[in-house]
Amino acid sequence: MLKYVLKRILLAIPVLLGVSIIVFLIMRVFSADPAPVVLGQHATEQAMEAWREANGLNDPLIVQYFNFLGGALTGNLGESYYTHTPVTQELLSRFPATIELALVAIIIASVVGVALGVLSATHKNSVIDGLSTIIALVGVSMPIFWLGVLLIIFFAGYLHVLPSSGRMDPLLQPVGGTGFYLLDTLLMGDFEAFSDAVAHITLPALALSMYSLAVITRMTRSSMLETLGEDYVRTARAKGLKKRRVDIHHALRNAMLPVTTVIGLQLGSLLGGAMLTETVFAWPGIGKFVVDSILKSDFPVVQGAVLLIGTIFIIINLVVDVIYAYLDPRISYSKEEG
Amino acid sequence: MAEATLQANEPQKQAQPDPESAPKQAEKTESLWKDVWYSLRQNIPAMVSLFVILLLAIVAIVTYFWPQVLPYDPYAQDLSASFQPPSAAHWFGTDQQGRDIFSRVLIGSQISLTVGLLSVAISLVIGVVLGAVAGYKGGIVDTIIMRIMDMMLATPSILLAIAFMAALGRGIDKAIIAIGFVSIPEYARIVRSQVLAVKQSDYVAAARVIGDSDAVIIFKHVLPNVMPSIIVRATLGISSAILDAAALGFLGLGVQPPAAEWGDMLGRGRNYIFAAPYAMIFPGLAITITVLAFNLLGDGIRDAFDPKARKR
Amino acid sequence: MALLEVHDLVTEFPTRKGVVRAVNGVSFDVEPGEILAVVGESGSGKSVTSLSIMRLLQDPGHVAGGSITFDGKDLLAATESEMEQIRGAQISMIFQEPMTSLNPVYRVGDQIVEAIRTHSDMSKKDAWARAVEMLRVVGIPSPEERARDFPHQMSGGMRQRVMIAMALSCDPKLLIADEPTTALDVTIQAQILELIYKLRNEFNMAVLLITHDLGVVSEVADRVVVMYCGQVVEEGEKFELFEYPLHPYTLGLLRSIPRLEDEASERLYMIKGSVPNPLDMPSGCPFSDRCERVTERCRRERPELKEVPGTTRRVRCFLYDDEAEVAHAVEATEKAHVVKAKLEAEERERIERARKMSGGAEVTVEIEEEEEVR
């Protein structure tokens, strides 16, 4: 098992290197010169040249790449063209907001998705099956930013029950702590702040979770239908187990294997979707920051953020692989696999 | 202990190269398509979706060649008429510049369909070629191609597309390239795994024996066999391309003004969300219906190719 | 009173093209402690019969008529929770596919423990000890360690032993074995059959053995039920039936068994034609289209299952409306009993000799199996 994990980690390293190359190629080779954007249309050629020189953009590409890579390895992702603050610091300060949003969304998507999938598989062709099929279809067809807009119009604009933007009322905002407001406020026992944080995260998390919820529902349903037809489910029934116990302990336990992988992949894609959700709900996370930086051609920020998200994505995949191996004894107890 | 079963031994049939296998295969392919079309026609949601898609295509073509059929000029600004709620005159209301939203939604079908089709075409062609070469050649070529694909898959595709747009700059052509580029790996993966399976089959071995070249084998024998999965993937791919394009538009990375694009319209309506919700509801509805139609059609085609999956 | 009485059982599967009667009026009894073999081709309804008894039919299949009485209890009228108390505790079942019949994510010991604890208040520790003991009973070497294995770490034969251990862990009165050896290698098949035969005595249970393999039947069964197209066509004591089959279908089945003593050059016999489409049955006897002794009447009317006096048997065929045929059958049956008595005497003598040679020690059947650890 340990060997398996180590092997997976070693395999992830070249992929990470590759991501850094792709990011670098996109930002430095394919892209137009950022100087006129950063300095403004009316900057002199001399000023732009000096700016390029200062930011190392005149070095040979290979030198630029190794500077970037060397920096990235030591946690230095360069400085923003505009604020001149280190990109690492900018990203880390916004990191908890995005992760908190993504985690709440994936929890909603997994819990509701798996429950709906199981119910529609065990009650095939029933009303709940039809309902979850519709949810699954509409969920993957709706742009999440539009869903966000609809939620805002209804809950914030029409019902006035939930806030439409931001992470928290600034007056209640916890100081210090982990940066995960739900956790911080709960640890401090400040329930007013906690409920405010919950109110703020509800709509963005719902909007963000919808697509994954749909995918997880669909996957759980088909996987569950497959395991329900397996011989070992019949064996379990023949032992005299109750249907509910067979559904959960035997069918679902096996159906969760592929679903786990899907949940992991969805958590990764939520990080991409977070850019849209954060923009809609003015959520102060990495996603919104990246979008703003792209519009300003602040390349070091974009580069660093893409690399960071790519890294998290790979780590998530790694964790999912390990969880999968843990859940499936055919992998963890296989003799060929050391 | 005597072993006796009811099944009498059948004489083993010798596998013989069939000289007529080529025309037979063509016939078989033709009847496969007929079967698929037949079972697709039984699928009501898929047929409704096909109808919706054809309708959208007609709208896109007609409004392109005869824009005069639109109730209003979708680009004509009239600030005195800005943000009129839906009415008999303006079915979907007007936007900030007083432009008729209904006309803009209709004409927006041009861009969404174009982006959907062209970007899928890009990823399809490049992905199929890369996947076929990787699967067929194997070895170091395979390793290099697939490692690059893995790296591209290691980043959320919308993030990669956004990075591309940031580098390339705005414009619908660039959006097509960015979206097309980031989904290459999906096609390459599907084609590669299928090619690996087909490569082992007897008829490919036979073709090699009679001296067909690699290119001939790939195009005549291997690709027709991977077509079903590619068609399904491409249909579903169009819907995700349309979603991605709308996302880029929404973030302000899509079209240049004053072009009408659904995602862009949504993005511009954002500041007036409470004052003029209709400016965001209708373009979003158009995206959702279009994407839903392609998804349902893709599902229908998949079920038609694989009757086993339908039961689920 | 018989342990299990199946009477006029009808099981239907509605399909898009019409209702398929997979089981169409099947009746038989299983006496306590006996091995009853149900033989038939695939599609004859034998597996559906066993699933009907367990009430484990997959939707939309359902029992449409008849009765199933187990130990005096009407199973078709039992509630689902009553059935749950019967399944695994009083009637156990093992299946054709040992490779897929065990849950891949649980240790085999835990799967047996689950069965035990479902039907008793045993502690986890005691149940585990019982599971290990059961694995020892079915001949699994070093059961303490193997109980911790996952199914994929065992061979097919070992897994079928685990299935048997699980099925017997609650001392059932009836074991339904649905093609228990079909998926196994030939040498392993013999071991599993021998095990079932041996355990039947040890556990004093009845066995309903479902199979398409007459070789299996000849090894272990006491009585045989032959099924064709969802109906019983012949039933009787094994020896009688093998020596002088009454129904032309049974005869065809027996003749298509390859025998060593037959001339090597002789072609294997095959019953002509194929099983009729369940949605398009012949209006007369279902076997009429394939029968060598078919008459006009067979094509018009359906024969009933009738007892043949002077024998242990019932048969569904018009042939035995003829006095001469019946007389012939009775004569053959008597001969068969003579042969059987002789064979049994020889067998007793052989065992006696073996006992003397081994110095009076009890002769036990050793079970050995080459375990392919994968």
TrEMBL record, chain A:
It holds the Pfam family BPD_transp_1. It is a multi-pass membrane protein. The chain crosses the membrane at residues 9-30, 101-122, 134-159, 197-216, 251-276, 305-327. Its main location: membrane. GO terms for cellular component: plasma membrane. Residues 95-324 form the ABC transmembrane type-1 domain. It comes from the Bacteria. InterPro entries: BPD_transp_1_N, MetI-like, MetI-like_sf. It is found in: Cell membrane. One of its GO terms (biological process) is transmembrane transport. Keywords: Cell membrane, Membrane, Transmembrane, Transmembrane helix, Transport. Belongs to the binding-protein-dependent transport system permease family. This is Peptide ABC transporter permease. The lineage of its organism: Bacteria, Bacillati, Actinomycetota, Coriobacteriia, Coriobacteriales.
